[in-house]
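Can anyone check this?
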Amino acid sequence: MTDSIQQHGFWQSALDELTAVAASVEFSQPLISPQGVPYWVATLPERGGVNTLCRYQNDQVQYLTPEGFSVRSKVHEYGGQAWCFISHDRLAFVNADDQQLYTQVTGLVVEAPVALTNAPASRFIEPVYDPVRNRLICIEELHHSTEVENRLISVCLETGSVTVLHAGHDFYAYPTLSDDASQIAFISWDHPYQPWLKTRCFAADVSESGAIGSINEVSGQCNDVALSQPYFASDNRLYLVSDQSGFWQIHTIDADRIVDTPLIKTAADCINAPWQGGLRHFGQRNDGSWVSLALKHQSVELSVDQSPILLEGFNQIRNLAVSGDQVLLIVAAEDRLPAVALLNEKGELKLLVGGEYPLPVAECAVPEAICFKTKQHACYGYFYPPQNSAYPESDRAPPLVVFLHGGPTAATYPVLNLKLQYWTQRGFAVLDLNYQGSSNYGRDYRLALAGSWGRVEIEDIDLAVQELARLDRINPAAVFIRGNSSGGFSALNALADLDCFAGGASLYGVTDPMALGQATHKFESHYLDWLIADPAKEPERYDAVAPINKIAQISAPVIFFQGELDRVVVPEQTRSMVDSLRASGLRVEAVYFSEEAHGFRQLDNQIRVLQTELQFYQSLMEP
């Protein structure tokens, strides 16, 4: 091989762009039918990112969603649980295109979906079946001409008519019925809060007619808590996740009061930040045992009554469903694709779909869980060294690509991501960073960005890059940074505020937070008040962290990727930044996708992003 081919960043690999994106099937929304049949939703790149409802029956996977339909809610723009069972052979789901509720018979003969609602201004999410009154209870997001209204509703399964059960709060989530449908609980919150900052939980009796009786608020010792995932046990007792201890943990409710001592005490969160609606991370089996998670830096631990269950071959659990003695899990691993697995009462794990090894184990870059520390704080990340058996070990330090997740109150995990392995296969090291503000490290860490977005995470980026350079694990002259959404905002600020980067990429990244606050959707319309400041009172703080105002500080080339249909980060933001950088004389590239929104779902577009970004970075390194 020539030196240029042996050079880190220019390695050849059998892992091409098509394989990297086509193999990334996502699984979500697991439920177990009344007859014990596992169901879930699969997002299939080869079908243009369509969400297909699947089930495992007769030892095979069956696809239930016909062409022209996709099981996906767009409530809050991020969606979540979009379907439920009505009976063992009938279900209801939200269709992506029109956001209406449909019912579908899925018995021995799978029938075509039938429209239930006809409300073009409405979107629906988190349907729950009420067997006593033959109706669905769910959240409706009603789009008026000038505002968006969220409310708790019921939908008659015979007529499709909508009845409002509760309204008045800015947001609703997790409508939950007791087994006998005599009680209901739900979560709500109001501006300016987010569901991981401060929420409220309400519980009430339900009359025979379906009306909600006197509503009681579930409260604790502290009002500034984020409550989530209410759950009725088989004895109708209510349980709830609260972060009042500093971590999201399961608590018992006694006379509408949150019992201080968690049901299962551990110094770890047991749920993820609720960006999407309806995710479940704990439940109770028929024998009364509790199934729960502990989200730790290196792995997610599954426990049954605090006894850890070893999931051989997997180290992460994204969400779960508990029914009877069975637990249906969406799992992931460092060297395998995501999978759907069933855990029986004996603790035995049965893989239903997924879990393939797309790369030989020897070719897979394994993440190293790293903690970067100062005297004041610590930040976390996962370091992936270059890995390709066709190239001998070298004394040369590799180039680095820093990955920043969106959110920013989200997280990255040490699981196989072929889009990340695409880089390590070509001789790049990758740092996947969980900067301060990320979830899964407790409430204090999650709230570290309060009033400091655009500064705190930049300090963490600098700390991590400098430490890796000090340890000679990377080539400090070839460091790149990339981020999507809010991660793009942080990447652009890092390019402006730090001098350690050779280039960077923004994927639908925020360039003007003031404009974002004025144009973005309801769910995040006050998020920036917490992340930065009240824009009416302190606009100068927005100016100070806006990448669009730091054109003169950016000296490294940048590439932008943007969807034209994006309503979270509108394309005008990206165009303005691109034009300003070009006017300053900086090398800038921009790729726009006419049919993409906030995140790229189409296979061809995902391939183009990988190809173009790689070529961009390679052009910035000496061959």
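Reply from J.R.: I decoded it. Residues 3-12+367-619 form a domain with the Rossmann fold fold (CATH 3.40.50.1820).
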